[in-house]
């Protein structure tokens, strides 16, 4: 299977999101014409803490690629949401032109392929659900133009930024909003 320009991606931090990822694989395959025609990959990213049986099951239910990564949780052990920082790996998926990320607890109910055509002014912009011009957007659904530079800048913000990401309330959304600020394009309805 040759890699596609586009990828639908899900990030799983622990076993409790496994069922969601199984359902998501089914709904993406059901609704995405790009996936059905082998013009978009389905990638699930998970950390090294998941069981080998989980990795095999995800491959069996239709994810083209199962990528195991080292969790970034070690940088923010005090955060209740520490594993959400593994989403940073999305920005480094430079083998793709565009990555469409969905949280594992989402179901796709219609063809999402059109979102790949959303204009992002640069790699330093993100497509997300939110109000354009405002600083708030959701990170449960994002359109990303992967970039090594953006990945490195996000990682440096996470590790050394002025916001202390090693605290109870810290999570990926705060990090992404601190980095992208108003550089986001609305890919759907409004939020907030």
Automatic annotation (TrEMBL):
Which InterPro entries does the record associate with it? GNT1/Glycosyltrans_8 (IPR050587), Nucleotide-diphossugar_trans (IPR029044)
Among Gene3D superfamilies, the record links this protein to: Spore Coat Polysaccharide Biosynthesis Protein SpsA, Chain A
Which superkingdom? Eukaryota
Q: Which PANTHER family does this UniProt record tie to the protein?
A: GLYCOGENIN SUBFAMILY MEMBER
Q: What is this protein called?
A: Nucleotide-diphospho-sugar transferase domain-containing protein
């Amino acid at each position: 299977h040759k890699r596609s320009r586009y990828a639908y991606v899900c990030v799983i931090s622990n076993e409790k999101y496994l069922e969601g990822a199984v359902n998501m694989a089914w709904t993406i395959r059901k609704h995405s014409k790009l996936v059905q025609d082998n013009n978009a990959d389905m990638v699930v990213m998970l950390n090294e803490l998941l069981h080998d049986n989980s990795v095999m099951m995800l491959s069996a239910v239709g994810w083209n690629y199962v990528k195991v990564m080292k969790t970034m949780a070690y940088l923010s052990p005090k955060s209740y949401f520490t594993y959400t920082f593994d989403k940073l790996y999305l920005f480094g998926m430079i083998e793709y032109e565009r990555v469409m990320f969905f949280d594992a607890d989402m179901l796709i109910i219609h063809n999402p392929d059109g979102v790949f055509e959303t204009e992002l002014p640069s790699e330093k912009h993100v497509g997300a659900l939110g109000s354009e011009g405002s600083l708030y957007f959701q990170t449960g659904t994002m359109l990303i133009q992967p970039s090594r530079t953006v990945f490195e800048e996000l990682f440096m913000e996470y590790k050394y930024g002025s916001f202390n990401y090693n605290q109870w309330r810290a999570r990926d959304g705060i990090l992404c909003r601190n980095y992208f600020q108003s550089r986001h394009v609305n890919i759907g309805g409004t939020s907030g």
